[in-house]
Amino acid sequence: MRHHLILRVVSKLLIPFILLYALYVQFHGDYGPGGGFQAGVIFGAAFVLYALIFGVQAARKAFPDSWLAIMVPLGLLIFAGTGVASLLLGGTFLDYDVLAATPTGGQHLGIILVEFGVGVTVTGVIIAVFFAYAGRTHEIQDDDW
Amino acid sequence: MGSGIVNVAVDISLMTLLGITAIGIVRSRHLFATAMLSGIYSLISAALFVTLDAVDVAFTEAAVGAGISTVLMLGAMTLTRRTEKHAIKLSVGPFLVTVAIGAALIYGTVDMPPFGSTEAAGFNHIVPEYIEGSRNDIQVPNIVTSILASYRGFDTLGEVAVIFAAGIGVMFLIGRRRRDDEADDGAPREKGEDA
């Protein structure tokens, strides 16, 4: 879809805001709707949109495969690591009370960390799955639709 | 009450759109149209979730159902043919089974407590404790987040593990093709080869 001028301009304008919105959803999940899952999908959707408009090769350059291989396990490790940290600090697994000076502060910290882990893994998986599918198809001409 | 009538009107119009979309999906033989219609179906479902005040679910449905899964369906469609091979004929047996199950489900809703009722089973078991705890102990305004990340941390860890496993599985199963392509020095493949 390289020659669709309107799509290119509009998506170029929108993508930074989509990414910013994903970060808002990620870190504002305690106060408003949203959280790691939603933020990860929105963050991934921005790159999917980029790949749809500018081609998968350009998107692969913007988001290298090596990042995916790191991000997909990293999020799960952050989540499980938070649990292990609370275990080492004297609580039970995923008991965030012990993570900070006060139980409430610990809960806030734990929720932020865990949601961040969720977001990282979901972002990685969404982009990886899309790249896996898109990598198997050839460039689709507009007439094919 | 005016707002009550508006709510009913919104519910009826969304449900009607949902029904029309579902019939469209069933009747369409063109896979592109089917994929797009299922995206529309997800978007209308997301609007319905908003009217039910389930904003977090609506968020997910709009992003995953209407966005990503439509793109993935289209991606999968480009690997196969664009139209259904055989038109599905209407056969009596499955039709009767579907009607019977649908009737049983509707019969089941008769016993359900009215929408928003505090007497509903879901509000009485452990939920008051969660609501209290979210307000006093965790102090997170969005109870969904506190339940998801704190009270049900194990469940969420399991969900992330499932997503992780799914992503790794897709990467291993179909993500490897591109390395073969690179090994071919980008030699153009015949289009039919992938089918």
In summary, what is this structure?
The complex is a heterodimer of chains A (145) and B (195). By secondary structure, chain A is mainly α.
Q: Biggest interface and its residues per chain?
A: A-B, 56 and 50 residues
Shape of chain B: globular
Binned, the helix content of chain A reads over 70%
> How many strands appear in the DSSP assignment of chain A?
0
Mean pLDDT of chain B: 81
Order of helices and strands of chain A: HHHHH
Structural class of chain B: mainly alpha
Strand content of chain B: under 5%
**Cα distance, first to last residue of chain A?**
12 Å
Total number of helices of chain B: 9
Low-confidence stretches of chain A: none
Q: Can you write the helix and strand succession of chain B as a string?
A: HHHHHHHHH
Q: How many discrete domains of chain B?
A: 3
The fraction of residues assigned to DSSP E strands of chain A is under 5%
Largest sheet of chain B: none
Layout of strands and helices, then pairs:
The complex is a heterodimer of chains A (about 140) and B (about 200).
Chain A (H helix, E strand, L loop, with lengths): L4 H23 L8 H19 L1 H7 L2 H24 L14 H34 L9
Helix pairs in contact in A: 1-2, 2-3, 2-5, 4-5
Chain B lengths: L1 H26 L3 H21 L3 H24 L13 H19 L10 H4 L2 H12 L4 H9 L1 H22 L2 H7 L12
Write up what this structure looks like.
The complex is a heterodimer of chains A (145) and B (195). Chain A is mainly α and 145 residues long. Helix content of chain A is 74%, strand content 0%. Chain A is built from 5 helices and no strands. Chain A has helices at residues 5-27, 36-54, 56-62, 65-88, 103-136. The longest helix of chain A has 34 residues, at 103-136. The mean pLDDT of chain A is 85. By secondary structure, chain B is an all-alpha fold. Chain B is built from 9 helices and no strands. Chain B has helices at residues 2-27, 31-51, 55-78, 92-110, 121-124, 127-138, 143-151, 153-174, 177-183. Chain B is globular and about 60 Å long. At the A-B interface, helix 2, helix 4 and helix 5 of A face helix 3, helix 7, helix 8 and helix 9 of B.
